Amino acid sequence: MSAHRLLSNPAVLACSAAAFLFLAAPLADAQTTAHKAEMEDSASSQPTDLTTAKLENSIGTRCALGDGVPQNYTLAAQWFEKSAMHGYGKAEYNLGMQYYFGQGVPKDLIKAAYWWNKAAELGVSAAQYNLGNLYFMGQGVPQDYAKAALWWHKAAEAGNTQATKNLEVLARTVPINKTASAVPVADKKAE
C-alpha cells in the first residue's frame, strides 16, 4: 500500500508542513507487538462477536485486495461495515479507508473521520495517525491543531514513527499556544 499525501488545503503553512504528512503508512511499518494487537482486536465483550467480526473483516480485506477472489471494493465495504457494527477496530479503520479514498462507497471525508475516530478510540494506531492528519488539514473535521497533536501523541506512543515526526513538524510550524502539547512527545521520542 503506498503512502498518500494530504495536500488539498491551500494555506501556505499547511502545504509546507503537509509534505511530512502521509496517510495510510505501509502496513510493513505497523508495530506488531502483542499489546497493539490486543487493543485492535477488541469487539464487544462476547468472544463470538470478536470471532465473527474478525472473519467479516478478513473477508472484506480479501475482497479489497483481490486475494483469492476478484477485487471488489463495494463488497469489501459491505463486509467491513458488518464487522464494524460489532465494534471491531480494524474493520472501523478499514471502512474509514474506503470512505477516504471512495473505494466501493462514495468518497466522504466526514464518514472517514467518523470511522477512524471509532477505531482510534479502540487504540488502532493507524486510525489515530490518520485522524490526526485529518484534524491538521481540516478534512472532514474542523481544522484543530490541538486535536491533531492529541491523536498523533497516541499514535506515537504506540510506536508510529511518522506521528512522532509530524509532532516535531507541528511544534516548529504552528504557533506554540496551539501545539504546546505536541512538544513534550517530540522531545520524549527523540531521547
Indicate the topology.
Blueprint: E1 4-5, H1 12-18, E2 22-23, H2 34-40, H3 47-65, H4 73-84, H5 89-101, H6 109-121, H7 125-137, H8 145-157, H9 161-173, H10 176-179, H11 182-190
Detailed description of the structure:
There is one protein chain. The protein has helices spanning 12-18, 34-40, 47-65, 73-84, 89-101, 109-121, 125-137, 145-157, 161-173, 176-179, 182-190, and strands spanning 4-5, 22-23. Strands 1-2 form a two-stranded antiparallel ribbon. Helices cover 64% and strands 2% of the residues. The two termini are 30 Å apart. The protein has 191 residues and is an all-alpha fold. Helix 5 runs antiparallel to helix 6 (109-121) and helix 8 runs antiparallel to helix 9. The protein is globular, with a radius of gyration of 16 Å.
Summarize the structure.
The chain is mainly α and 191 residues long. Helices cover 64% and strands 2% of the residues. The chain has a two-stranded antiparallel sheet.
